[in-house]
Amino acid sequence: MTISRRNLFKAGMAAGAALSMPSVLRAQTGPLDARTVRIVRSGLSVFDPYFTTADVTVDHALAIYDTLFSLDSKLLPQPQMVGKWSVSEDKKAYTFELRDGLGWHDGTPVTAADCVASIRRLGQTSAGELLMTRARDISKKDDRTFTIVLKEPLGLLIDILARPFIMREKDADRPATEQVIANIGSGPFKFSHALAKPGASFTYERNEKFVTRKEPSDGMAGGKIVKVDHVIWDNMADAQTALAALQAGEVDYLYGPPADFYSAIEADPNLELQVLNEAGWDMFLRMNCLQKPFDNVKARQAMLHLIDQEAFGRVTAPDPKYRGTVTSIFGTNTPYSNDENTGWYKKGGDPEKAKQLFKEAGYAGEKVVILQPTSWGAASDAAQLLAASLRKIGVNAELAPSDWSGVVARRANKGPIESGGWSIFITDAADYTLSDPSAEAILTANGEKGWYGWPKSDEYEALRAKWADAATLEERKALARKMQRVWWDFVGFVMLSQYVSPIARRKTLTGLIGTPVGSLVMWNMQKA
Fold first, then answer.
1. CA atoms within a 13 Å half-sphere pointing along the CA-CB vector of 43
2. What is the distance between the alpha carbons of residues 481 and 492, in angstroms, rounded to a whole number?
3. Among 176, 60, 196, which Cα is nearest to 124's?
4. What is the pLDDT of residues 476-519, one digit of tens each?
5. How many angstroms separate the CA atoms of 402 and 48, rounded?
6. Mean residue pLDDT across the chain
7. What sign does the dihedral 348-351-356-362 (CA atoms) show?
8. Of the spans 23-37, 43-57, 354-368, which averages the highest pLDDT?
9. How many C-beta atoms surround the C-beta of residue 419 within 10 A?
């Protein structure tokens, strides 16, 4: 799955604006006690993890849905909803049987038909595209068993089956381009429609009928033991208000606090910073390859030389212990990180080289519009630094400020600036997600069929297509170097910095589970 970093303050109070839900009773939440955890987690406006790649939606899905397989702390897929499975000698036919005790929050049993529909829905997204091109048949055998028959072997099949969140058949049958808003899953938490207060808070209740696996919890795999009755996500757009609530004990957990709050948090004897994603995040900029000036590869190459990663790192994470540089399209901590074709990297950047490349691109003063997410402090500051860097070399850079939801809406516009288009936007991704180019949308280069920015390279795509057939780690490492060589020639994105973002919590909240993809995992947490 594509998991793209969505910081605490990206969406702010816009969370409730686009919300479409059944009519519900706006009840008050219960008292804050040892069985209730309050988390400042903003921006939940889309509830369907097939419809968006936003981290906050994935975190919501992890709470209420379950998966066939789940990734452990080493990113290896382990059975979750699946009880047992087998594969034929020719590696083309797989049989999966669901484990006992699986039931939907509405009281009906989970069936193989639900799983088949969910897998097919995944196939409508980039995360499931490979499976659908290789599958001859995906069908149920009986109520608890389904089969996948392939045209040719696919070594990544079990990894792929860790991606789909399993929905009821009637929900999964909706096209992936249409949102599912029922919020009925089979996971360890139930979404409370009765306690939902869009724009203010959402409440998750312990699923008393959830049957956990017996294995120890490990990453997102193993046992999912819920030790509290309620988890409430509070939407607080103002960072200072959120910190004050944490200090006062009104909330227990602050997701992604701004870096300039770290010293205050560390000085408070009741609070603690905790890194749950040690692999960190990679911040990058994406250019609109369909419009001037970045439809010219020379202009895109200019951006590689312009960027001073240390300067952007100071914006992203002022404390040096939380930041670094990143030159590989496969991140800094994955098995496929490499230094192929990275001669463009230079400490401090090379503005003169960037200026020369813009000239070679035929740049004639066209406006370069940078989308500035004002509700995400680090990215907003990075956008301002980027605009200043471009202006210094004679580029007509202009900032377009909005909250993150405004960025998300505008970046889908493929048109020119004059028609509401854009030139550059900044975002980031969990470092470890860059280890799988077969599923990670930002590592595609298939033009207008691809992710925002729409870079195109047939040579790169031909190499990416070979990923699924690389049988060993060494083969994939060799392929990764070839892919990176081509990528840094056509420049599908430009890295800005690598950083680690701790969460802040009251010391009375323990048992938090760290994951290499940075997801908010709510099982196992407990309060003293």
1. 25
2. 15
3. 176
4. 999 999 999 999 999 999 999 999 989 999 999 999 998 877 78
5. 24
6. 91
7. positive
8. 354-368
9. 9
pLDDT digit string (tens) for 57-114? 999 999 999 999 998 887 789 999 999 999 999 999 999 999 999 999 999 999 999 9
3-class secondary structure, 516: coil
How is residue 484 written in tokens? 């990176």
What is the distance between the alpha carbons of residues 418 and 453, in angstroms, rounded to a whole number?
A: 17
Report all structural domains of the chain as residue ranges with CATH numbers, in order of start: 1-64+187-277+501-528 (3.40.190.10), 66-180 (3.90.76.10), 281-499 (3.10.105.10)
Among residues 319, 322, 274, the alpha carbon closest in space to that of 514 is found at 274
Spatial separation of the C-alpha atoms in residues 485 and 455, rounded to whole Å: 15
Residues 6 or more apart whose CB falls under 8 angstroms from that of 521 comprise 62, 220, 512, 513, 515
Q: SS3 of 96, please?
A: strand
Q: Are 66 and 81 in contact (CB under 8 A)?
A: yes
Alpha-helical regions (H) of 129-238:
129-134, 157-160, 169-172
Among 205-209, 318-322, 477-481, the minimum mean pLDDT is found in 318-322
- The string of DSSP letters for 237-297 reads --HHHHHHHHHTTS-SEESS--GGGHHHHHH-TTEEEE-S-TT-EEEEEEE-TTSTTTTSH
Question: Which residues, in sequence order, are CB contacts of 180 under 8 Å at separation 6+?
Answer: 47, 48, 50, 51, 167, 171, 172, 174
Residue found by looking up tokens 């706006």 in the block = 26
Amino acid at 140: K
Omega within 30 of 0 (cis) for the link into 293: yes
- What's the pTM value of the predicted model, to 2 decimals? 0.78
Q: Are 229 and 35 in contact (CB under 8 A)?
A: yes
User: Is the torsion defined by CA of 474, 475, 476, 477 positive or negative?
Assistant: positive
Give the span between the Cα atoms of 85 and 342, in whole angstroms.
Answer: 43
Work out whether the CA dihedral 98, 101, 104, 109 comes out positive or negative.
positive
Q: Give the CA distances from residue 474 to residues 155, 328, 402, in Å, rounded to whole numbers and listed in that order.
A: 15, 17, 44
Contact 147, 95 (CB under 8 A): yes
56 closest CA partner among 1, 127, 2, 6: 6
